[in-house]
């Protein structure tokens, strides 16, 4: 609902013309003079020359002091100029002359609303409604007054009064639905939304808002029915297809979703979003080979291409094994050597599979084409670290600090590597804390802080930070290993061994696994249950 108060000068023109026709008690000459000044004022007003219009209207009032309608236009001009005190003073003076004048009361109410005095506006508007209960302007302003006060009960009362005048206004029903939703009355809001959709002949924007509300309520069947009705009327609308597909996926109606997606793809064959979600639905049904084929149909120019690549890689690895997944990554690089993100994707995927040497080859090939790419340099550093070549990794990444002094990834990488090497620990702490200011909820950066504190011998601080890191990243094997090391250093060996065992169950890299296994082996055997 608009809360800006529009000043209705056009609505006053008829009243002003009546004043001209009926005249006043002034002599004919004075009336002619007043009429001349009034015409000048009106022309100035229409040209946006409000100061001139105001000056001429005062000349009108000099000739006819009791003229009411020029006074109304003056009030309106002061309102437009934002001079609300003068507008209010004029309105009160005019109301002494005509205390029940509807136009004056409405103008005064607008002044109060512009001054953010909605309670006074409401009282004034009720005076209009006492004599004219169906006055739409007064009801609309009263609704604005209640909404400004956040008086939802009063706003709903005003809406009910307006709906008695316009029971089939979908705009009013939509506003009622919004107010009911804000008032915490979801069931009533739902009915108002559905009524608004029906009366609007299922306008897209209303259907989408109503459907979104129903979904937030958890009323998926009603939302589904609403979208299906819209599609029945608008069978070519892509937005309704998307909304309905989301509902069916949420409800896990895989067969219906598949049917709808194939129907949508017949109408929109170039829509790669539909194609991607068809692949997802086929996966959910266990038809992974079909899904693999569908994902492969998504072209590099699609916004879903990166997601499709991830699914192809994951499915290839699941269905055919790691070597097939590596082969897919190699072919991908050869097919798109001009895209640095492809090298990054392939190298990162190889690292996740614990094939760090192959990942290093991928990223080095990328850096030959894109030698300054930040993501590729960081990935090469990660892969060198994976291979235990920490000094090389540091020498590679540390120069990035000159180009990216505030980058949390660069800061954390350099700081953590310093800690691993046991050098520049104060600098390492400063870098890591700077990175944390950028990403305070990043578990891996909190872990870095804990690790540098541990290396400095500040064990109690280190324990506090590592426990926070574990909460943020509970399944990271290296973070858990660090927690075990810190507990061990504090003499809490039994707890450390429990954490080491958990870390071992989660580790993915051979190098990490061998290191953590040795720590578990040094623990006393768990008592048999």
TrEMBL record:
Q: Which Pfam families match?
A: TPR_16, TPR_19, TPR_2, TPR_7
Name the keywords, alphabetized: Repeat, TPR repeat
List the coiled-coil residues: none
Q: Where are the TPR repeats?
A: 204-237, 443-476
- PANTHER family listed in its UniProt record: LIPOPOLYSACCHARIDE ASSEMBLY PROTEIN B (PTHR45586:SF1), TPR REPEAT-CONTAINING PROTEIN PA4667 (PTHR45586)
**UniProt protein name:** Tetratricopeptide repeat protein
Question: Which species is the source of this protein?
Answer: Thermosulfurimonas dismutans
């Amino acid at each position: 609902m608009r809360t800006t108060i529009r000043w209705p000068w056009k609505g006053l023109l008829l009243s002003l013309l009546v004043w001209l026709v009926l005249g006043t008690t002034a002599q004919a000459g004075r009336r002619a003079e007043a009429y001349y000044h009034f015409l000048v004022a009106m022309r100035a007003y229409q040209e946006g020359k409000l100061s001139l219009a105001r000056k001429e209207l005062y000349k009108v009032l000099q000739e006819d002091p009791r003229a009411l309608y020029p006074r109304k236009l003056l009030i309106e001009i002061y309102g437009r100029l934002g001079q609300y005190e003068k507008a209010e003073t004029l309105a009160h003076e005019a109301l002494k002359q005509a205390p029940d004048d509807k136009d004056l009361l409405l103008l005064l109410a607008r002044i109060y609303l512009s001054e953010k005095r909605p309670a006074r506006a409401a009282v004034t508007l009720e005076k209009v409604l006492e004599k004219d209960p169906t006055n739409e302007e007064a009801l609309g302003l009263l609704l604005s007054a209640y909404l400004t006060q956040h008086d939802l009960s009063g706003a709903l009362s005003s809406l009910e009064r307006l709906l008695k005048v316009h029971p089939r206004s979908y705009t009013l029903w939509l506003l009622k639905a919004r107010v009911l939703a804000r008032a915490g009355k979801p069931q009533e809001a739902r009915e108002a939304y559905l009524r608004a959709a029906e009366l609007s002949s299922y306008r897209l924007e209303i259907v989408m808002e109503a459907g979104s509300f129903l979904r937030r309520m958890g009323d998926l069947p009603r939302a589904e029915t609403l979208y299906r009705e819209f599609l029945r009327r608008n069978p070519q609308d892509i937005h309704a297809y998307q909304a309905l597909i989301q509902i069916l996926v949420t409800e896990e109606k895989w067969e219906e979703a598949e049917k709808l997606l194939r129907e949508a793809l017949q109408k929109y064959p170039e829509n790669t979003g539909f194609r991607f979600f068809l692949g997802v639905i086929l996966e959910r049904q266990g038809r992974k080979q079909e899904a693999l084929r569908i994902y492969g149909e998504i072209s590099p120019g699609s916004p879903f291409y990166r997601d499709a690549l991830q699914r192809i890689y994951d499915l290839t690895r699941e269905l055919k094994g790691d070597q097939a997944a590596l082969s897919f990554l190699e072919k991908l690089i050869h097919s798109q050597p001009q895209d640095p993100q492809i090298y990054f994707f392939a190298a990162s995927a190889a690292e996740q599979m614990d094939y760090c040497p192959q990942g290093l080859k991928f990223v080095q090939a990328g850096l030959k084409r894109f030698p300054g790419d930040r993501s590729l340099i960081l990935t090469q550093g990660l892969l060198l670290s994976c291979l235990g070549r920490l000094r090389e990794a540091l020498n590679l990444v540390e120069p990035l600090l000159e180009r990216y002094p505030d980058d949390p990834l660069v800061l954390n990488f350099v700081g953590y590597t310093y800690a691993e090497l046991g050098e520049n620990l104060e600098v390492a702490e400063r870098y890591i804390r700077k990175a944390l200011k950028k990403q305070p909820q990043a578990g891996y950066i909190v872990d870095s802080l804990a690790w540098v504190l541990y290396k400095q011998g500040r064990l109690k601080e280190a324990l506090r930070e590592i426990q926070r890191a574990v909460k943020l990243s509970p399944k990271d094997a290296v973070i858990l290993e660090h927690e075990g090391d810190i507990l061990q250093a504090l003499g809490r060996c039994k707890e450390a061994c429990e954490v080491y065992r958990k870390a071992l169950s989660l580790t993915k890299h051979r190098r990490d696994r061998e290191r953590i296994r040795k720590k578990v082996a040094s623990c006393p055997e768990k008592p048999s249950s």
